[in-house]
Design a protein that fits this description.
Elements (H helix, E strand, L loop, with lengths): L5 H9 L4 H15 L1 H17 L4 H19 L3 H10 L6 H14 L4 H16 L7 H22 L2 H17 L5 H17 L3 H17 L3 H17 L3 H14 L5 H16 L3 H18 L2 H17 L3 H17 L3 H17 L3 H16 L5 H15 L5 H17 L1
């Protein structure tokens, strides 16, 4: 243990020890001596990281206040939420803005509309931050808010609005002088998902690789893991399944297994193995993934995992188990008004019926799902694809290849809706 020198203690007691010397020579000694102080220090560091601000006062005071402010906002209609964050300075804090953006990112997995609302509130808060914060840091925060808004719009299929939001995020970054590479990398990474949704896969790959380079340079394992999961999706859509699997294995290796990205990396790995026909390997990993997802308690996560379970069962020849899973998932998607997902599950179910020569079940299924789509505001191309599906079922000529082509059309229309 290194004790502060007598000169350091003298300057401390006289009140003229610099802040830098205090941090370097005195604080480490105190933290080493006191377990409770060490624990409190770790909490300060955690809040600094979570709320992405260097100032301990902002991180701790606003970080602790943010959940209460967020709870007050959530209880109100959206118009009133916007009014509060615009007019009441109590809600114009760095900590609340960061929490709103985090909630937007989380909500995008389950409810894109809610994700947009949270991101719009985050944008509004960032526009009303006063001189208490460094103006260039505020520019970074605004850029992040617009990128999160663009991401939520992308998930909802509002690709033009998302493009506009990302342009604003990039314009804000060009005005900032913080040199914060990690903020720029996050914007680039989220933009790569927009390029993937736009089917500009080459551009998407270039952007995600650019973000990966920054994350790896800074030793940011969580950021690297998230980008690797995104890269795997692009590789999968490019037909490079083995590279996608390798990318997901690397993500699983480096991220916190209890984090949300850890859950998705493992689930996507199981799904990618399944789609590659490596059913036994996927089956071995499946139960570990299910246990993790059950702990997370998100219904839509568990629903998609159940869909993957059905695909594995089908690939292993357990057709009764597969049918039960597909039916359960199809009904749940329909109950949530998630018609595209319900149609995609129905294609899996149709292939199973065709393999078992259950022609009447196949025809009934095609009619049911087409009626669901005709009753909703969806693209004509999606309805046309399902008419093709119904015709193939009626004429008893549905094949795995044709079902795959129809699924590709539906997935494309789902992204563009």
């Amino acid at each position: 243990m290194v004790h502060p020198s007598i000169e350091t203690l003298t300057r401390l007691l006289a009140g003229d020890l610099s802040h830098e010397d205090l941090l370097r020579e005195v604080i480490p000694h105190l933290l080493e001596r006191c377990p409770e102080c060490r624990e409190q220090h770790q909490e300060i560091l955690r809040l600094q990281k979570e709320f992405d601000h260097w100032d301990e006062r902002v991180a701790v005071l606003e970080g602790r206040q943010a959940p209460e402010l967020f709870a007050r906002l959530k209880a109100l209609p959206f118009d009133e939420q916007l009014g509060l964050v615009a007019d009441d300075e109590t809600f114009q804090t760095w900590g609340l803005c960061q929490l709103l953006l985090k909630e937007s990112l989380d909500a995008a997995f389950e409810d894109a509309g809610r994700a947009i609302n949270f991101a719009e509130l985050g944008v509004k808060v960032s526009q009303n931050l006063e001189d208490a914060y460094d103006p260039h840091w505020v520019l970074d925060l605004r850029a992040r808010a617009y990128a999160y808004l663009g991401n939520a719009q992308r998930v909802l299929g509002e690709l033009r609005s998302a493009e506009t939001a990302f342009r604003e995020a990039e314009a804000l970054l060009t005005r900032s002088m913080t040199g914060n590479d990690l903020i720029a990398a996050e914007v680039i990474h989220l933009k790569s998902s927009l390029r993937r949704a736009q089917r500009r896969l080459g551009d998407a790959m270039a952007l995600v690789d650019q973000a990966l380079t920054v994350y790896e340079t800074h030793g940011d394992s969580q950021g690297t893991g998230v980008a690797l999961v995104s890269k795997a999706k692009i590789l999968e859509e490019l037909g490079r399944a083995e590279e996608a699997i390798a990318s997901l294995r690397e993500a699983v290796r480096i991220v916190d297994p209890l984090s949300r990205v850890g859950f998705y990396a493992r689930h996507n790995l199981v799904l990618c193995l399944t789609l590659s026909g490596r059913y036994e390997e996927a089956d071995r990993l499946f139960f570990e993934v299910r246990e993790a997802f059950e702990r997370s308690g998100r219904p839509l996560d568990l629903l998609r995992l159940r869909w993957t379970e059905g695909k594995i069962a089908f690939g292993l020849g357990r057709l009764q188990d597969a049918e039960a899973a597909f039916r359960e998932v199809q009904e749940a998607f329909l109950a949530r008004a998630m018609g595209y997902d319900a149609a995609l599950v129905s294609l899996d179910l149709a292939i199973l019926y065709a393999q078992e020569h259950r022609i009447e079940d196949l025809k009934r299924l095609a009619t049911e799902i087409l009626q669901v789509f005709k009753s909703r505001d969806v693209h004509r191309e999606a309805v046309a694809a399902l008419v093709l599906f119904q015709t193939a079922c009626e004429e008893e000529r549905l094949t795995v290849e044709l079902a795959g082509e129809i699924a590709t059309i539906l997935q494309r229309e789902q992204r563009a809706k």
